[in-house]
Each structure stands twice: as structure tokens, then as C-alpha cells.
Amino acid sequence: MIVVTGSKRDVRLRDYAGSIEMVGGHDLATSTERGTDAITTRLATISSTYLGAGRNKLFIRGVADSSFTGPTQGTVGQYFGDLRLTYNAPDPDLQLYDVRSVEVLEGPQGTLYGAGSLGGIIRIVPNMPDPDAAGGMISASLSATQHGAPGADLGGWVNLPVESRAALRLVGYGIREGGYIDDVIRQRRNINRTDIVGGRAMLTLLPTPDWRVSFGTVLQSIDGRDSQYADRGLAPLKRASPTDGGFSANYIMASVVAERRGSDVNFVSSTGWVRHRLAERYDATLPEGPATSFLQDNHTAMFTSESRLWRPLVDHIGWVVGVSYTHNSTRLNRSLGPAGAPLPTTGITNRISEFTGFAEISTQWSDATVTGGLRLTHSSLSGLAEDQTTSSPISLAFAENIARRAESNLLPSASILKPLMPGVRGYVRYEEGTRPGGLTIQSRQVERFQSDHVRSLEAGLRFNEDTTSRISGGVSLAYTRWSNIQADYIDKGGLPSTANIGDGRIISLSNSLLFRASRELRFDLSSTYNDSRVTEASPFFLQVIGQTGILLNTVTTGYPGSAHLGRIPNVARFSARVGVHYDTHLRDDWDLSAEAWTRYVGKSRLGAGPILGGAQGNYLESNAKLRLILPRVTVSIGISNLFDTVGNRFALGTPFAISNDQITPLRPRTIRIGVERAF
Prior knowledge:
By secondary structure, the protein is mainly beta. The strands form eight sheets. The chain has a 22-stranded antiparallel β-barrel. A five-stranded mixed β-sheet has the order 3-8-9-6-7. A two-stranded antiparallel sheet has the order 1-2. The two termini are 29 Å apart.
């Protein structure tokens, strides 16, 4: 039986009315990627920016906003078990060692998950400490990248029972990703090397048969020597930048989770503390100008706690009711000036406290499952300017006036799921999502941006959901209205800023299919189509357009006072993936496993305007891996980017370039040879 743990009440997949994708721990462990790329390369509905490890923003089902790390909250909620990983920081890109599964719930999830889940959520489910068995695994590999430097990784986990009522599980890893970008001005090769070091620890206590208390910590540090972009006008994998674009990301989370499994009603309480720092450098040198750097330092501190009671769907009724509190503080400091000695420029601090109550109930009438839910959130927001040395007293007074405010949001949801024929279930789902507003910097002055809101209606089919059917899959169609879209743009001072650019709509069509040709051979196919449009520009943004002239291809619609801004940025109209898997028994205890896949990412644009209007996407990526599984030892060889495609994953390296000549190429063809040893 497949259970959707992201439902917060262990709903069976057959009873879940919505689009969900699952990636099993075995698939993650055998992937040629270890971080978030192991998810995005397997699921067509997820897209990402590609600034570098620990710097990217994730998008689901076409709900995409910005290319930069700024004051806006992400559109995808990310969770590690029951714990929220981030609030308005980028994807921490945790390396997926010793993970049981990853669940992706598509579409707004406002009722159960609140702010920041406009596009959906990604939930990493770790393997829990096991008090009944000691064991572990260690893995190591070496990689060689064509046109680049070699890499290596070492990782492992160990499970240690402590008597019969406790267990400790430890995970650790170190990764070096060899660089492959050369800089022709600084005469440096393979400048974009990245080092990742991290680990996890979890201690689980079982004081009684029905209680479980877990204490956990997650640590990860990323050090990138330079950015991974190239210049379109130069030879492949080369760029000309007078200064470097290095970055570092440090993530720490501590958690306590208490669970009680009752005979009818269950209880879960989870509390987490997060410290997350991202420091970035950008080359800001103007043509014929002196070497100039722009530094951005993002400090995030978050406390979150949620307690809930829930009952699984048995005897025709199931429910969940809970309360939560979240406090998040983000300080964004900036510096701009001569390389090596940039001067502070205006920064901001945003703080938010959220008090929430939520409930959802499902009941079965005849053969249909009807679900309704509601979330009430009261948010207190505040902010202030940092290093504000260039603003006038008027702007300071304005900032003080807008810094403190409060808002309340009511987020309903409803769905119905019904069998249509043997093995086929259909559903209709309505859900909403929101993000709070905040403070941003526009032309070195502090300004306010408003909250945005999505409303989504989805209809879908799933068939043959059990694991034994020869053919299984699903299809979904969703229509989403997005009000007051928060997005980034380049202000007249040449710096990234945030504004409410207007309203939009998104039509998404997704499908997945799994065909089991035999016990050994299976094929999978998935695709997604997004038609996303900004339908009406906000008056403020139209004024900005008139002042700066940065918007591209603005045309008047048939509605008075509106402007058609084109497609929402960072969303490919069409993406698809095809994979093949072969598993066979050779002899005795020897097994062979082979996998290959090809992924197409369609065209998209970086953002609004000629500065951010660069084209990206429209590339094909292929990977393959072969594993020989022996008793306690597994040997593997994998090849990523089989055809050594250059491509363009993301058309931005630095926002200070005055042309659209930046590309982010795929990592060149890389061969990885690895070994795993279980004990």
C-alpha cells in the first residue's frame, strides 16, 4: 500500500485527490546526482534556476516568479520530514544520502502548508533510526568531466541501536564537483569548482510502545569558487569577467519531533530551528570601466513549531486539525564598488510571525471521497533598512511608515475523488495559496511590495495505482489565477529589485505513464505543458517600465488599462522525460541493474525586459548508469550528459551584464565510477 505522508494524516494514494509524484530511496541512491538535481531530472513538472548549488529557486507547475535570491518567499515549500527547511531562502540543496523517498505534491497546498506553497511542496522523507538492527553503508566515487576537472565524493550512514528503546542514525558526506568554465580575462581554468560537506544525526527514543521522540540535526556547507555561467559570444564553456562570482552557503537545522500512535487518533508535534546564510559575489564591471564587484549577504533565522491531531481515513471518515507558529527573520546586506573594497549600499531586514490554525476532513459517501479544509493565518510583518546611507529623510520616513503591518488570510480547499471504472479514479480539487509581502530596495530606496495569491482548480485521472499492473499512470489539467504576482526585475540603478508586476493565469497539463514490459524491463514517460501569462500589469510596474524602458514586447490587450506582458519567466512551455530500467539476476547473489533516460527542457525566458528577457532552455539531456550488485558490495559506472550537449539551462550569470549573452551550460559529459559497501 502506497501512503502519502505529505497529506499529514497518512492518506492512501488511492484516496488522495490531487497530483503527486514520488521518487523512491532506491532511485535516489542510484542516481548520478545527489542533490536536488536528483529530483528535477526525474520529474518533468519541476524546474529550477541554475545559479549554483545552494543558490537556486525551485518551481512546480509553472508557478515561477524570480531569478534571484531576494526578499520574496519561494513558490515551493520544502520540508525535511515534518520540518520546514526554508521560508524565503533559496533551495539549500541538501544531498540526498540515506533518504527513504521524496514526495512532490503539485499545485497550491495552502490549507495544510500555508504561505509559500503556491506551486506545491517537496517533502524529503529520511530513513529513521531503527532500534532493532545495526547496520550501515559507505560509498565512494571518482568522476572525470570532459573539458573540465575531475571530482570525487565520499559518503555513508550508520544505524546504532541503543538497547531496545533507542537508536542513533548518523549520515555524513563530502563532495567535490570539478569545474569546467574557463575565464579568458583572468586566465584561469575550471573556475567553478564546488565543494560540499554535510551530515545529519538523529536520535530516536521509544519511552513507551506508542510514543516516539526524535532529536535531529542537519548540517551542510557549500563553497563555490566561481559562478557556472559562460559568454555566448566566446568559445563554449568560456567567459570574460574581470572579477569572480564565488559564493558560499551554510545551513544548520535542529529539530525535535514527538509522535504518539493511538488506536484511533494520532498526535504529532514538531519544532525546528534553522540558521541559513548565503553569501554571493557578482561581477558588476561596466564596459571599459574598472573592475567592480557586487556582494549580497543573506542571513536567515527561522523558528517553526506545529502540533496536530489526525485520524486516518477508516470507517468512512478521516481528519486532521492543528496549530502552528513560525517566526522568520531575513537580513539582506549589499555592497557595490571596486573589487576588493566594495562600499555598503542599502539593505533590508524582513521579519514575519505567523499564527495558524488549520483543519481538513474527508468522508466517504457511497464510493466517493469528499474532502474540505480551511486554514486561518494571522501574520505580523516588520522590516527596516540596513546601511541606508544614500536615501533621503523622506524615504526613511516612508520606510518607517510601511515597516510594520499585520494581515490575515483564509485559505480554503475542497476536493472529490470517485472511481470511474475498474482501476480508474477521477478527482476534482480546488486549493488556494498565498505569500506575505515585505520590503525591497528600488533604486537604493526602501519600498514595500504586497502579498500575492493563487487560486487553482484541477481535474485529473489516475489508473492502476498498484505496483503490479502492467500499465499505470495519470493525467491532470489545472487552471490557476495568480493575483499581485511578486517578481524580480532590474531597477534603473542596475540592481535587482522586487515588485508586484500584475495578475496572471497558468494552464498546466501533466501526465505520467509507467509500462512494465516484463519483470526485468520497464519504461516511464512523463511530460508537462504550461501556458503561463501575465494578463494585466500593475500601475506601479507600468510606471517603472515608462521610467526605465526595461520591459520587452509590451502590447495592449483588449482590456482598458492593462498590458499583456507575455509569459511568466522561468517556465518552459513544454518539458518531457523518457526513461528505461532493466533489472536482472545473473547468478548466485549477483544482480545487474541498468538505467537510461532522456529529458527535454523547452524554451523559456529569464524575466521581464531586455535585461532579463534572454531566452533559455530548449535542450536535450541524457544520462545512463550500470550497477553490478554483489553480496554487500555494489559497483557502478554512470555517464551524465551522454552527448556532451552545451545547452543553456539559465540565461543569467550576473544581473549587471547589459546584454543577453550569458548562458549556463550543462555540465559536460561526465563519467562516474563508484563503489558501495554495506555492513
